[in-house]
Write a structure and sequence with these properties.
mainly alpha
Length: about 400
């Protein structure tokens, strides 16, 4: 008979308790991922038209997204410090508040300056949110199971896009901006709700790995980031295409709501399948075909007057982009030192790459669209993405599980 004093009983209960905490935290992370990205996608697809209505041209609409991304990038290097001071629950809740509250002020903003100011505040929240999501999720699972965990996290992100992006366009075309902004604030509230799945305190969600974290020096940072360079470059290029597609397809194609819905839907399935393939075969074997499919789908954005071709391209873009996100994130995490500090640093680097690419695409795409139209913008973006495969890859991660 096992009594409560039996060490085996205490150990078993500890394992059950730890598993319940992990499930609770992962569930909270998925709720937060859905809410945060639903809010993000609603406004990403609606605000360009709102900015144009306020007197800005395509370049002004692109600059609005670029402001959001610039603010996001500015806060991300400080997120490990923030997580250590506030803890996971409070950090995630803060990100939801910063992401959602400015949305309520958007109906009163009618100038590009005011819109950029609110976008900057939202960018602070988004920057904290995206680093928290991928870092906290990764910390919950050992390296061998991260592909599927990241796949599920990415699926939640994709479902948010399936609902958020087309709905934002549809509401903008009805000029139902007040409803759009209220929905963006409400879905951001789910980030705050999801934060309660995490325990109080500042400790990592799982014990630190066997490697001790390097001190944060310029030399140490470069050494830790150097093995990640290849996946990070691919991430920047792929999200540049993402910024172009999701900012400018709504301005160039009448079938934009259907196209973005198709892209987001295919991305959900691709993230789940890619997670399984990555755990089985390694991220590098998934990455190359995923990049090529993304480039092909991006080029199809030039078919603004051919709905069938545009929709087919959108399906390809979503499938390729979803797989690229899962593969690059897993590869970056594999290149990091195990432990909370190393994984946190990798999470920051990957998210900076994501947001930098999105900002580059939305900012540079406006002048290119004005100069050459869709036939110049989308194929040029696709060619730049595909050309990156010609760049020699960096050395393999020190503790990669490739080639299983």
């Amino acid at each position: 008979m096992i009594t409560p004093a039996d060490p085996a009983a205490r150990t078993g209960r500890g394992l059950v308790s730890s598993d319940l905490r992990r499930r609770s935290a992962f569930g909270g992370a998925l709720i937060a991922a859905f809410g945060g990205f639903a809010s993000f996608n609603l406004l990403l697809s609606a605000l360009p038209a709102y900015a144009v209505r306020s007197g800005a041209g395509p370049s002004g609409a692109g600059a609005l997204t670029a402001t959001l991304m610039a603010s996001t990038l500015a806060v991300q290097p400080f997120t490990p410090w923030l997580f250590a001071r506030l803890g996971r629950r409070n950090s995630l809740a803060l990100s939801g508040a910063l992401l959602g509250l400015p949305s309520l002020a958007l109906p009163a903003a009618s100038t590009l300056t005011a819109l950029n100011g609110l976008a900057a505040v939202r960018g602070l929240g988004f920057g904290i949110f995206v680093v928290a999501g991928v870092t906290f999720t990764t910390e919950l699972f050992p390296a061998a199971g991260r592909g599927r965990a990241i796949g599920w996290y990415g699926a939640a992100v994709g479902v948010a896009g399936v609902l958020g992006a087309p709905l934002g366009i549809a509401l903008a075309r009805q000029e139902a901006y007040t409803l759009t902004f209220a929905l963006a604030a409400g879905t951001a509230g789910l980030v705050v709700a999801g934060s309660f799945g995490f325990p109080r305190g500042t400790g990592p969600a799982r014990p630190a790995g066997p490697r001790a974290a390097r001190s944060w020096t310029v030399r140490g940072a470069w050494r830790s980031l150097r093995p990640m360079t290849g996946p990070l470059l691919v991430e920047i290029a792929s999200t540049t295409a993402y910024g172009v597609v999701f900012t400018f397809v709504p301005l160039t194609a009448s079938a934009a709501p259907q196209a973005l819905l198709a892209a987001q839907a295919s991305s959900v399935l691709a993230r789940l399948v890619a997670g399984w393939l990555i755990d089985g075969y390694g991220g590098r074997r998934v990455l190359v075909p995923a990049v090529l499919v993304t480039a092909l789908g991006t080029a199809a954005g030039s078919a603004s007057d051919e709905p069938a071709l545009l929709l087919a391209g959108a399906v390809l873009f979503g499938a390729g982009f979803g797989a690229v996100q899962s593969a690059t994130l897993v590869l970056v995490m594999q290149a990091a030192d195990e432990g909370s500090a190393g994984l946190g640093r990798a999470g920051v680097a990957w998210n900076i790459a994501f947001d930098a690419g999105t900002g580059i695409g939305s900012l540079a795409g406006g002048p290119l669209l004005s100069a050459g139209g869709p036939s110049a913008l989308f194929p040029t973006t696709a060619a730049a993405l595909a050309a990156l495969l010609l760049v020699p890859s960096t050395r393999r991660p020190r503790h990669s599980d490739e080639g299983k």
